[in-house]
Amino acid sequence: MKTVRAACTSAVAASLAVALLAACSGGTEAGGDGRQTLTVASVDQGSVEAVVEAFEKANPGVRVRLTTSGADQYQQQIRTQLSSRTAPDVLSVWPGNGNPAATHVLAEPGYLRDLSDRPWAAKLPDAIKSVAQYDGKTYTAVFGQNGIGAVYNEQALRKSGLAAPETWNELLQFCKDAASEGTPAFALGIQDNWVTQIVQYALVATTVYGPDPDFDAKMQAGQATFADSPWTTAMDKYQTMDKAGCFQKNPLGTNYEASQQLAATGKTLGIVQGNWVIALLKQKNPEATFTLTPLPATDDPAELLIPAAAGAGYGVNAHAKNEELALKFVDFVMSDQGMNLYATKQGGLPTLPDTGYNTDPALKELARFISDGRTVPFMDQLWPNAKVQQTLLSGLQEIFSGQTTAKDVLAAMDADYTSGT
């Protein structure tokens, strides 16, 4: 669910991502300077670079050839590279089964090396382990936990004279008041289709899982469907937010990068995103302060839930040209130093406890919700195949462009859900 800044090029260079992934996924022979080369493809914008630098510093004889790209482009390419054995040694892998580069999807055909023998694998919390494994074996080094909510630019919020809403009705009024003052409440960059799901997930957490915590189990048992569930309520609320002026003009013409710029510079009061966006906003405006809170979907604050789950991690190519270095890198990522560095750069929370990490004040509410058990997994992580998410993403774009309806999108998701893997 994240996108990234290019290390071989500038931020989110979508048009160059395909070429860069191919160019930076070559061999791992020693370079001209005598150092061994490890190839890494990542979707961790603005954070992996610091981890790579620390890894190289700890391993003077190693050079990391890093490629980063946007999530959409990455997911389109990585399976092709893996099947043709041109993929890098280490690659970003999402937990669960929800997209083309997820753990189940890549482990089942044998593209990933089993990491169960690594010293950190047995220490993963059960909730993380369940989505980092396939067929009882661990394939993904999940280094952080993420959450989705409303991220506010505190300076812009104070300037507006408005307060962050805590209920659904307050949210709608907040959006109307902000729009009337010429500063929309939230930036929305759904030109990148992965972004479409973020607001939807934030609303689904409360509207679907609040009244029915067992919804996923019922879906898996064939006792529930998207189309005949409160998913319809969440879809309606998403569209209601749009009609209430919650977002800037032309979200379909705004990409993720541009939406960050709007929120960082106070052109909007905030953005509905994962906590990973906070580090990116700080890069664009180091003087600003940002805070993540739940996105209200009900008029009772006690009923609010936050989507929070394992974030994208790293897998090792089963045919890595330098397996030893690849394993050393993922072990470094899962060390206290690696996890804390990622958490600091991303504005997240380490996967393993007792790393000595000081939580960013911006994530105080997220940490509280996780501690209180008021979270639900990212919805796609428990879906049976990647088609369901892709239908949701394209369907939400089509809803915003007036080409389809929520009813049709949910019916199509049901068809994909029951079609198997």
**Poorly predicted sequence stretches spanning 5 or more consecutive residues:** 1-31
Taking all Cα atoms into account, the compactness measure Rg is 21 Å
Assigned CATH architecture of the largest domain: 3-Layer(aba) Sandwich
Q: What is the CATH homology-level superfamily of the largest domain?
A: Periplasmic binding protein-like II
Distance N to C terminus: 20 Å
Q: Helical stretch count?
A: 17
Number of domains: 2
Overall pLDDT = 90
Largest sheet at a glance?
7 strands, mixed
Descriptors:
alpha/beta, single chain, D-Maltodextrin-Binding Protein, domain 2, 13 strands, 17 helices, 421 residues
Structural description of this entry:
The protein is an alpha/beta fold and 421 residues long. It has 2 domains: 171 residues, D-Maltodextrin-Binding Protein, domain 2; 208 residues, D-Maltodextrin-Binding Protein, domain 2. It has 17 helices and 13 strands. The strands form 3 sheets. Strands 6, 7, 8, 9, 10, 12 and 13 form a 7-stranded mixed sheet that branches. Strands 2-1-3-11 form a 4-stranded mixed sheet. A two-stranded antiparallel sheet has the order 4-5. Strand 1, helix 2 and strand 2 form a beta-alpha-beta unit. The chain is globular and about 60 Å long.
